[in-house]
Structure formats: structure tokens, C-alpha cells
């Protein structure tokens, strides 16, 4: 049976263009894989350290990216990724239908997810069929300075709000 899933991406938007993107990735079934919050501070376990290193290595694999605020939480990751110097298009430039996805925000996130998943499956001698991530991820195109400041503060304050927001 083939599933007909609708994309949550902005139809026709060029996700390879320069801009700031707020990303949220959740673990499969919201499993607490990356550590724990103690007194409002995120304490990374080995998996959390690997996830942070993979996140920080994004510009190594995608040189036209710059990382801004990010946080590894027990069951999710928030971060701002900037694609820089790709083109001179306006923030709402839409792509042609056959544009290659190789340098899009989607390929960046896919590469990050693969790196963390490989560690869980092979380096950590884990279950080689383990699903680390939910199928998709949330992204928001940051359109102005006020949005950037609001989102950056949300990311930085996320661990301190954990006990109020978490059901676990």
C-alpha cells in the first residue's frame, strides 16, 4: 500500500537559497536519547555529545552554511541554520521544478540525521535497524530580525523551560 503524504514544505520555495532557517528535529516516539535536563540545564550523554558534534560539523560538509543558536534536548534539537552566499535572490524566490536538492536545507538536515543515526546503529553497537528520528522535521523560514531574536531566545531558553513543557 502506497501512502500519499502531503509535504509540509512551502510549495515551490527554493530551499537552497540564502536565508535563515529555524529547524526542529524530534526523535522517534520522542525517546529521550540525548541526555537529561537537571536544574534547567541540558546534560548531554554520549549520544547527545555526538549529536552536538554532528550539528557543529554541518559547515564542514556544507561550506555555504553558517550555524547560529542551537540546543540539543533529551528528545529533540532546535537550531538556526543559515545558507550564505548562494545567490542574490529575494527571500521569497521560488525554484524551477527540476532544481537539484543536493544543497538544500533538506539535504543538510538529511546529512545530519544520517550522521547521528550511523553512530547509534554502528559506532554504539546498537540495533542496526533502530529508528532514531521522526520521518520529517519542522522548519520555519526566518524573515526578519524580530523573528530571529524571538526564535534565538526560544532556543537558548528551551532547557530552562523543560520542566514546564515536558510531560515526562
Description of the structure:
By secondary structure, the protein is of the alpha+beta class. The protein has one domain (19-160): Transposase IS200-like (Alpha-Beta Plaits), CATH 3.30.70. The protein is 33% helix and 22% strand. The strands form 2 sheets. Strands 4-5-1-6 form a 4-stranded antiparallel beta sheet, with helices on both faces. Helix 1 runs antiparallel to helix 3 (105-123). The radius of gyration is 17 Å and the shape is globular. Mean pLDDT is 83; it is low at 88-101.
What labels describe this entry?
four-stranded antiparallel beta sheet; 168 residues; Alpha-Beta Plaits; two-stranded antiparallel ribbon; alpha+beta; globular
The topology string of helices and strands comes to EEEHHEEHEH
CA gyration radius, whole angstroms: 17 Å
Give me the secondary-structure category.
Answer: alpha+beta
State the CATH class.
Answer: Alpha Beta
Helix/strand layout:
Blueprint: E1 19-26, E2 35-38, E3 41-44, H1 46-56, H2 58-61, E4 65-72, E5 76-83, H3 105-123, E6 138-142, H4 145-165
Antiparallel strand pairs: 1-5, 1-6, 2-3, 4-5
Short structural summary:
Strand 2 (35-38) and strand 3 form a beta hairpin. Helices cover 33% and strands 22% of the residues.
